[in-house]
Amino acid sequence: MNEGLKGTEIVVKCLKEEKVKHLFGFPGGQLIPLYDQLYEETDIRSILVRHEQGAAHAADGYARASGDPGVCMATSGPGATNLITGLLNATMDSIPVVAFTAQVPTKAIGTDAFQEADTFGITMPITKHNFLVKSTDTLSWTIKGAFKIANTGRKGAVVIDLPNDVQQKRSKEYHHGEVKFAGYNPSIVPNPLQLKRIAQKLVEAERPLILAGGGVILANATEDLRILAEYLGAGVATTLMGKGAIPENHPLSLGMVGMHGRLGANKMINNCDVLLVIGCRFSDRTTGWGLESFAPDAIKIHCDIDSSELNKNIPVDFPLVGDANLVIRDLIKFIKKYEDVKKDTNIWRKRVNQLHSMCEECETVKPNGSKLTPEIIIKTINNFLDDNAIVTTEVGQNQMFAAHYYITKKPRQFISSGGLGTMGFGFPAAIGAKVAKPESQVLDIAGDGSFLMVCQELATAMSEDIPVVVAVLNNSFLGMVRQWQELFWDKRYAGTKLGTIPDFVKLAESFGAYGERVEKASDIEKALKNAFDSGIVSVLDFKIESETNILPMIPPGGRVDEMIGVGRCRHK
Amino acid sequence: MSTQIISVLVEDEAGSLTRMSGMFSRRGINIHSLTVSPSEKEGMSRMTIVTTGDEREIEKVEKQLNKLIEVVKVNILDKNTSVVRDLCLLKVYADKENRAEVIEIANAFKSNIVDISIRTITLEITADPLDIDRFVETMKNFGIKELFRTGVTAISRDVEKKSGG
Ligand SMILES: Cc1ncc(C[n+]2csc(CCOP(=O)(O)OP(=O)(O)O)c2C)c(N)n1
Ligand SMILES: [Mg+2]
To answer: Domain A5-171 sits in which CATH superfamily?
Structure first.
């Protein structure tokens, strides 16, 4: 019985082999063995969050900022169920997260024991894959398999449910080397014939447009994407998840498309003759509705690592399965061969520049006296932060203001909840990002409603010394829902008024954090400086008008080229 | 919309059946029948799923199934080149007066009598599901007391290549 490694020793050994340095977690009865194992561990830092949802989001933010899997852990029952939102959030945005959940001892499973939950059953539909480990003998195989699944192919969250006795028993079984699954082969080489056809279409195109999704960033293919775009003279629009796939100050960058995208970018979708879509799943927030009117005249090319995304939402002319990295690299190779047949794309380039500058112009908001507007706040943040800074967002108007106005210059520096749209993601994700990149400035562009959902993590940031800055765009409303009520529901503000509770400055101070209220545009920069200089987690309470809207937008049911609220867009 | 038979080879892992059926319900796809049995490969099971959908929908199902880690192979069976079978156990009311008639019809459908009581006959039939449908329809005339069907299982025929001449 005393032979081999204890289950928890196996966990730690595997974590080290996977080069895990940080764990975000929260303990409980069934998780005591693993916590105990980590107690004297110096190579792995265990960060105590104040709510398990924070652990999942922090692991997610860590993964997005670093490119390495994020790891979190929670106890059985309520601990595991508190992780759920965070796990689905990661899976929907294809972010590699590995979660350890404790479980009641194997003998007690099925008895409705104290804090027993069917974590395996509950997490099955919201993760990429999950495991219930029934014996310490299979533990190392499972953990290595979990990391492989989470971090290869189309990435996602993987849960490992660990019964208490599996953590404590000893086993001599230890899996060395790679874990193989008969039905899982994530490394797909793009089909060269299809690549050649696609390259030909791109070279022949007069008005090529690239739509880059989060897949380009996840595949670390952004540098090659820029090269490809420059070769083709193609404009590059991105989805929310694709922000940072091309420097947004690049002349070919058109910004974000979709429901709250830029007018120019949305127009271009229906203007181009060849649309190359890479690492994007055509979410309805990207395409709008009336799918037959999405780029109706364009030859559509769709490259994605997940074959089930091809022809799922939008039928395309040229589907191609493959990692964005390989696809783009090979496309460049093929296109180089066509150098001499290169068309004159000057007219199109001009049009790209024109559309680009048209939004630029609009977005160069001049300070309107001392009025504090989201535009001015985010523009000031733009100028204040350095080139390595990471911005996260909450969900709502704050997120869309950030997506619209924050100029992202590098990949993995704009972190936002796309698929799930989870309020309360941004702050714990910022904590995770700061842990991954301690040298970078990290700032969460937040809404008052969202931040309140996770503000307890101020305690985590204080006690673990993780100095991130939360910029609350405080409109005293659940602003985005209020905006819909204003525009589409007769201004009946049911359930959206938050009022001025709490006092965010005092809230911050009660945690020992830095807090400051900002009411004038001229004070924004000073406040940002104070916050970053404080060296501790900070909350800036920007008092903005209650009834500002983020416009233009595609109304629910509208098509990609039917934006409303374009009144102030000068070049309609 | 037509009936489709999907044959799936899966690794025997706890939960793989739930994962499969969960995928169908999550994507809003109906399952008519689902059978699970051992396969010729050790550690792997074969699931036969009958569903309805057009070509595009079935292609989506195939891709979603392939995405599941435990799924090793997915085959959409062509009904023209496959042997399709369903097993039905049926208890029908039959007394002195109509017992002979029930037996006669049962024989015509090549079904076996597996039990007889004073008021019922229990029949067993293994056939193409459409034949079973017709059998059941006919037996309804006598009144069906209980009906069990196993669900469809199917296997593709090996198409012999004609030797060239
Ligand atoms: C967890 C969660 N609950 C509800 C929603 C629906 N929702 C979307 S935006 C929004 C309002 C967000 O309010 P706030 O954080 O103050 O941001 P604002 O829109 O005011 O900038 C709500 C309730 C959501 N996205 N996430
Ligand atoms: Mg708000």
So the answer is: Thiamin diphosphate (ThDP)-binding fold, Pyr/PP domains (3.40.50.970)
A86 lines ligand 1 (CB under 6 A): no
- Residue B165 — pLDDT band, cuts 50, 70, 90? very low
Banded model confidence at residue A353, pLDDT cuts 50, 70, 90: confident
Residue nearest to atom 4 of ligand 1 (CA): A423
Q: What is the CATH number of domain B2-77?
A: 3.30.70.260
Q: Using the mean position of ligand 1's atoms as its centre, give its distance from the Cα of residue A367 in Å.
A: 27
Ligand 1 pocket, residue A480 CB under 6 Å = yes
The alpha carbon of A521 and the centre of ligand 2 are apart by a number of angstroms equal to: 18
pLDDT at residue A560 greater than cutoff 90? no
Helix (H) or strand (E) holding A324: helix A324-337
**Is A26 a residue whose pLDDT tops 50?**
yes
C-alpha distances (whole Å) from A261 to each of A326, A554, A564, B39 are 28, 9, 12, 51
Confidence of residue A567 (pLDDT cuts 50, 70, 90): confident
Instruction: Indicate the CATH number for domain A374-543.
Output: 3.40.50.970
Q: Nearest chain B Cα to A308, which residue?
A: B63
Q: Find tokens 């997490």 and name the residue.
A: A123
Task: Decide whether any atom of ligand 1 lies within 6 Å of the A475 Cβ.
Answer: yes
B83-154 — its CATH code? Answer: 3.30.70.1150
Please tell me the pTM assigned to this model: 0.95
Task: Decide: A566 and A263 in contact? Cβ < 8 Å.
Answer: yes
Q: What pLDDT is stored for residue A362 in this prediction?
A: 64
C-alpha closest to that of B91 among B138, B123, B132, B133? B123
Packed helices A139-151 and A7-17: angle between N→C axes, nearest 10 degrees: 30
Q: Is A473 helix (H, G, I), strand (E, B) or coil?
A: strand
Using a CB–CB cutoff of 8 Å, tell me whether B73 touches chain A. Answer: yes
Q: Please state, in angstroms and rounded to a whole number, the distance separating the CA atoms of residues A119 and A192.
A: 43
Model confidence at A337, pLDDT cuts 50, 70, 90, reads confident
Q: How far is CA B19 from CA A129, A185, A216, B153, in A?
A: 9, 19, 29, 20
Let me know: does A541 contact A474? Beta carbons within 8 Å: yes
- H/E stretch holding B4 reads strand B2-11
Ligand 1 center from residue A285 Cα (angstroms): 16
CA distances from A9 to A4, A118, A140, A329 (A): 10, 25, 10, 42
CB A318 within 8 A of CB A202: no
Whether residue B155 is predicted with pLDDT greater than 60 in this model: the reply is: yes
What atom in ligand 1 is closest to the CA of residue A475?
A: 20
Q: What beta strand segments (E) does B12-135 contain? A: 33-38, 44-53, 71-77, 82-93, 112-116, 120-127
For residue A33, the tally of other CB atoms under 10 A from its CB is 19
Angle between helices A397-405 and A374-384 (to 10 degrees): 50
Which residue's structure tokens are 């001229």?
A: A522
Which residues in chain B are closer than 8 Å to A121, comparing Cβ atoms? 15, 18
Taking the Cβ of residue A308 and every Cβ of chain B, the question of whether any pair is shorter than 8 Å is answered with: yes
ipTM: 0.89
CA distance A319 to A379: 39
